[in-house]
Amino acid sequence: MELIRLSALDLGLAASLVLLLAILSFRLSLGVERKLLIAALRSIVQLTLLGLVLKSLFAQSHPLFIAALALFMLFMAGYEVMARQARRFSGAWGMGVGTLSMFISSFSVTILALNVIIQVEPWYSVQYLIPLLGMLLGNTMSGIAISLDNLTHNAWQQRHQIEARLMLGHDWHKAIEEIRRNALRSGLIPIINAMAAAGVVSLPGMMTGQILAGSPPFEAAKYQILILLLISAGTGFGATAAVWLGSRRLFDERQRLRLDRLKSS
Amino acid sequence: MGSLTLKAFQTPLLAAFNLELAAGECITLTGPSGCGKSLLLRAIADLDAQHQGEAFVDQIPRQSLTGSEWRRRVGLLPAESAWWAERISDHLPRQDPSLLQSLGLPPESESWSVSRLSSGEKQRFGLTRLLLNRPKVLLLDEPTANLDQTNRERVEALIESWRKTQNSAVIWVTHDPAQQQRVAHRHLQIVQGNLQETTWN
Which of A163, A170, A171 lies closest to B47 in CB terms? Predict the structure, then answer.
């Protein structure tokens, strides 16, 4: 079965739907038309570029180029996490907390999957590594962004309660325990919902893609299961790391609450 | 026991000063609102990063203790107490009906929900919560501001007896000149960013 190739006209038709939505947003004064169009444009440009980059990477697949692309994806994800925070950490921590957590979770899960589970030879071959890493980064990014936003938002809202506990000699773990738990929970809910709905309500993106490309549905389902499981593990470990790092940063060595380390965007 | 020593202590609103409070001694602190009284108490309890100087309880330097160990010894009662759980009892380390009673609170009040408390009740429960921690030094930020006369007298009597039996030093922020005279012999006043001491009899 050969993949039916899409023409510029086909994509143009799909784009006109988004244009229509932008007009609707304008008429209803939702105020998101600018954001919507910029985001749509970004996805068109970024995915076209990725397609071109991958095409040339497939041709020569030098490990250094692959590593550079992977790191670029990581830093973009780190930037996105930071941009979604209403109250972010100031200085290098603003991007550092999210980026480091995603590095720990997404990279290690991807490497584990490539070496131990799928056993690709060599493990860094572009065809497997970049799509896998992309899916892991994209999903852990959302989870970490939600968790961190929840953490800093609630720490700010409940600063009097946190300090009341510090005044009574509770240590910082105890003072932020409940907020930390909620932050982590909120970051995990989307992936839990996605797993629960997979195959019943939604046909996940990867499986759709493989079926469209002509893979046997059962093989596509197995890959999708693998991806969902990896994503949930990656999101969980990544959000845990981010919440731990973030909550640690909210206190100093004297266990004082340091909301001055946050700045509102 | 609980004496408090501050050396070259300095906050963003207050020039450097030294202060020596013997165990069992009470001193009041006054000054116009916004002059940095609460900030000073927070600094002594080591809740704000922006201050300098050394602090000791019973000659033990603050640096030798962790933040939470220090704050268990130096108990701060803020002007407004915050509550993080549903019931009063969730905030108390243990039960002490006689302590509640001395503040005019019935023994079953422990199971009350925080949301139904008046500001005066909050203030008295806040003091209960703090004293159950057995702090060696008390920093009180207007502890009777929301109380009627009966309860104000109860709080004054309780702190007086606590100070004498536990021998703990007390810094008491108040705006009431009559209360100043009643509870202490030494008085601190913040005047244009400086701490000045007066002694009356």
Answer: A163
